[in-house]
Amino acid sequence: MDLKLKIWRQKNASERGRFVNYKISNISPDSSFLEMLDVLNEELISFGEEPVVFDHDCREGICGTCGMYINGRPHGPDELITACQLHMRKFRDGETIVIEPWRARAFPVIKDLMVDRSAFDELMQDSGYVSVNTGNAPDANTIPVQKEQADLSMDAATCIGCGACVAACKNASAMLFVSAKVSHLALLPQGRVEAKKRAALMVAKMDALGFGNCTNTGACEAECPKGIKLTNIARLNREYYKASIF
Amino acid sequence: MSLAGIFLITFLLVHLGINLLVILNEDPMVFNRAAHFMGTNKVIKIFEIVLFGGFLLHIIYALILQVQNWLARPKRYHKMTRSDTSAFSRWMIHTALIVFAFLAIHLADFYFKAKFGDVGETSEEGVHDLASLIIDKFQMPGFVIFYVASFIFLGFHLIHGFQSAFKTLGLNNKTYTPVIQVLSILYTIIVVGGFTAIPIVIYFQ
Ligand code: HEM
Ligand code: SF4
Ligand code: FES
Fold first, then answer.
1. C-beta A168 within 6 A of ligand 2
2. Which residues on chain A are in Cβ contact (under 8 Å) with B87?
3. Are B89 and A217 contacting, i.e. CB atoms less than 8 angstroms apart?
4. Tens of pLDDT along A118-162?
């Protein structure tokens, strides 16, 4: 495949940045999106130019590190995948691909396509944990948990913290991420105890970090590589109201 | 925000019900008496204050919300979003501004006229002839088009707003959300259909 790439280049956090156009040829449709960028970077290095900086680690969709906005969609034109799981066969030969970093006040650009997502870590450090004493591991089945609850909790726990929800949201809101964390803890006995307090604290922290507010547009759900559902946000809202009323 | 929105949604139904009297009843006095009652009754007077409060709350929260949301993304994407979302939800603030402009003009035209302006008296003591005022206004094609267009934009605002408010309140699950979705479309059709029918029917009568 021959492709035209339009990639955001920015030296550091304070530089303004701009788009640079590249041409790349002989890309296998079976290669992954990141492999395509590797090929580009090899070429750039051979010309003595700076390679394009982008985040990546596991390259199998489990770490949540790779994040980029590809042709108007976080993680590019496919459902339920991360950028590292995207295949080049999803593009047409000769297509122009626009690649941008996540855009959010809370995720400042570090360099090129790499953004600083430590706001997510700060959220978890602030209040995204269980602090009650849960004692030793109990014997199996002494604390009954409904199968449905356990499943919902496990579904919410599949969030990999990639930030696609923030990147996709027109308000750069972190509600889907926060709701996944609040839900996976609130649905199990150990996390249940502090559920409403945790919801109130995490929402306050999210606002303080400069994320936007949820208007139920649903771009987060549409783009989440792990299929985290909007119903988690409703659960977060319920816990939040409980905290503010009772 | 959501509660104020749901409150406004209920208000619109009441408002529509009374206004439909203008075109559904041959005798203009029926509407005039209803409007007289709404304009003078003590309980309704209190509700009127609550209603203005509801609008104010909704608008103030909306502005704070929108400004925060714009600030949360200082640099926008070069490529327009291709995420699978409803256009109505993306254009809420824009439809809101149109509805707001309409509201200002609408209040100046009818509400403040009825309250402070000179509207012709009818044969009945103290009852003003609002029906004739409305019928006169809707003889102008420009006025009719402006009203119809505004209601369509109000519909766009409501089709997302109605179901969004329930999600904001924490109600979103497999059983109820599809029902709410259908209700939101039905409600929007009734409100937009009803309100647009009034100027159109009057114009062609
Ligand atoms: C007068 C001018 C109005 C303004 C400036 C306004 C503004 C807004 C804004 C900015 C939003 C949130 C936008 C978003 O989701 O991105 C909103 C939501 C909403 N609006 Fe309005 N609006 C107006 C009139 C109305 C009216 C007349 C109604 C109902 C009859 C209404 C019902 C709603 C509802 C139900 C929501 C959703 C609330 C939620 O999800 O929490 N609005 N409005
Ligand atoms: S909710 Fe989905 S999109 Fe958001 S951080 Fe978690 S995995 Fe990524
Ligand atoms: S690199 Fe780990 S999810 Fe893509």
1. no
2. none
3. yes
4. 999 999 999 999 999 988 888 988 889 999 999 999 999 999 999
Task: State the closest ligand 2 atom to the C-alpha of A180, by its place in the atom list counted from 1.
Answer: 1
Q: Which residue has the tokens 């004692």?
A: A135
CA-to-CA separations, A105 to A75, A166, A194, in angstroms, rounded: 19, 10, 29
The residue among B3, B83, B91, B175 with the most chain A CBs within 10 A of its CB, best to mutate, is B83
Query: 10 Å Cβ neighbour count for B127?
Result: 17
Task: Report the C-alpha gap between A83 and A76 in whole angstroms.
Answer: 6
8 Å CB contact of B85 and A218: yes
Annotate B39-82 with three-state secondary structure: HHCHHHHHHHHHHHHHHHHHHHHHHHHHHHHHHCCCCCCCCCCC
CB of A160 closer than 6 A to ligand 2? yes
Q: The complex's ipTM? A: 0.93
Q: Please name the member of A71, A212, A235 whose beta carbon is closest to the beta carbon of B69.
A: A212
B67 CB-contact burial (10 Å; exposed 0-12 / middle 13-18 / buried 19+): exposed
What's the CA-to-centroid distance between A153 and ligand 2, angstroms? Answer: 15
Ligand nearest A161 Cα, by number? 2
Mutational pocket test of ligand 3: of A32, A38, A54, A65, the residue with most ligand atoms within 8 Å of the beta carbon? A65
> What are the structural domains of chain A?
3-111 (3.10.20.30), 117-245 (1.10.1060.10)
Q: What is the pLDDT along chain B (205 residues), one digit of tens a residue?
A: 899 999 999 999 999 999 999 999 888 899 999 998 988 899 999 999 999 999 999 999 999 999 999 999 999 999 999 999 999 999 999 999 999 999 999 999 888 877 776 677 777 777 888 899 899 999 999 999 999 999 999 999 999 999 999 999 999 999 999 999 999 999 999 999 999 999 999 999 8
